[in-house]
Amino acid sequence: MKRVSAVTMKKRIVTVFLFGLIIFLVIVIRLGYVQFALGDELMGKANDLWTRDIVFEPERGLILDANNEVLAENVTAPSIIVTPRQITNPQETAEVLAEILDVSVDKVFENITKNTSSVMIRPEGIKISEEQELAVRTANLEGVYLAKDSKRHYPFDEDLSHVLGFAGIDNQGLMGLELFYDEKLKGEQGSLSFYSDAKGRRLDDLADIYSSPADGLNLKTTINTKVQSIMERELDLAVSRYDPDGALAIAVNPKTGGVLGMSTRPNFHPENYQDVEADVFDRNLPIWSTYEPGSTFKIITLAAALEENAIDLMEDEYHDDGDIEVGGSHLHCWKSGGHGHQNYLEVVQNSCNPGFVNLGQMLGTEKLFTYIENFGFGRKTGIDLQGEGNGILFKQENVGPVELATTSFGQGVSVTPIQQVMAVAAAVNGGYLYEPYIADEWIDPVTEEVVDKKKPNLKQRVISSSTSEEIRFALESVVAEGTGRPAYVDGYRVGGKTGTAQKVGKDGRYMENNYIVSFIGFAPADDPEIVVYVAVDNPKNTVQFGGVVAAPIVGTIIGDSLRTMGVEPRDDGPDKEYQWPEEPKVEVPELIGLTKDELTEYMLNLSVETEGKGEYIIDQAPAAGTKVEQGAEVRIYLSENDR
Fold first, then answer.
1. Burial of 517 (0-12, 13-18, 19+ CB in 10 A)
2. From CA 382, how far away is CA 419, in angstroms rounded?
3. Structural domain harbouring 342
4. pTM of this prediction?
5. Span of 73-82, 162-171, 537-546 with lowest mean pLDDT
6. 216 FRET partner, CA 20 to 30 A, in 29, 182, 280, 463?
7. Percent over 70 (pLDDT), the chain
8. Are residues 27 and 72 in the same domain?
9. Among the options 161, 196, 263, 295, which is catalytic?
10. Domain check: are 194 and 265 in the same one?
11. CB proximity list for 430: less than 8 A, separation 6 or greater
């Protein structure tokens, strides 16, 4: 038998020792790495295996108007969450839930037997009704939980629908402000975590972990619900009367760019958006649609001519014989035979196309198109809504004499309504072009403190204050003496401009007897507080002129809005020039204190309704000084005594 020497034995022992030491060090290093480097990660994974989460949705932030009126809010509507491993009798549970949710048993059974920690029955088990919630609680089913949830509610129904948009079944913003500001409105989810064994059964001796949801911020907008309601009412009346293909209205504060109101027809109810076609809810016409603006665009040509000192409104004159020849083409005035001899104020009042062609020729292509671009046309305004259009302008290198001429009176170019409104706001507010906006403040729902405040964004100054003053003067005369007379409002100084634009068909040709008629107005004319634009697409059974259809709508919106905004009436504006068959309004006289016998000399062109008995008039409606249509009714209240 071979003997092992002591030296060899010693070497072997040392080798084994070193090998064992290396293994030990590897184990220690590995344990240290697991403990200190991977500890948190492994603990988290283990925790995920042991715990089951019930998600709690945060409250979506409210949307408010400028006066804190709620435009979008949340109403309680819990959702059902099922933990399959905790259900001992899946068939019985499926039958109960199927009856409550009005869905097939097979669908419920398939969901609640899935090999997963938790499951939701979609969409029937999401945001259930109060009756369904009570039924689930009463059933007291194992493994079936009710998670706090809510659904969006819009108190004003269809009003402002395209601006507010709507939220989906998972409280995600899908359109309008709900989509544009989804990140700020939606908040962060919370959860209730409980421990369970390998089979998913709850371990009652371990404490649950609750993480509260963080609610979304409240959004205060620039919208004035009173102005908005007036606009909605007037568009509804226009749709009822004219049966148009579409209609829109916008109101803005020209001093800031804040949107006071915006509406589109056809509209929809945000809570039932699934009931209408996508092309109804997905097209916010004031920011999306592009079309030839027609004569409302003449305001820009006028602004450029005045700023460049090309004309004097009162001194310079133009003779209109009904058409003007440009590049071999004849461009006609809307009035057959023309307007004859006019100064340029009358050119504006009469909306004379050849007169504005002449202005465009005075300016030339480069100057006119520079002003058009400076006023914001051809690019997005930057309003905080999805889907804004750019509009279409001629490239200057492609502009010949005819294109220059037609652009001067608003034909051959396409703009969006919001571009038109902001440009005119700049023309009358002293020359300042603002970015339009709707989101004004972000408010913490708990502390009610303002965490962010929007500042009006002045893009640039496009004309001088003196030019702006001349434009206001000219456009006020349009309403008092020109084509915009139907927009005249007693007690308020209103300026504005009509627009009648022939629509272009799919074949690229102008359509017969199919126009978009519009009017843009502002008031008070000397210090504008509101600019309103209304466009009606192809009104039926009427003369398709902006002055006939859109001007009276804008006049009503402006008058009623200024009253709700607290702007006091005045009597220092120009008087309206009446033309046949128009008749001037009459002022209601002071009747209180008179007797019935004295009444006849005051009431030649008003009708009278009486209340009470006696000889003396003790009250009246409307009040003395109110201007009403001739033949309007005045109600008087009689008494035996004179007081």
1. buried
2. 10
3. 225-564
4. 0.79
5. 73-82
6. 280
7. 90
8. no
9. 295
10. no
11. 465, 468
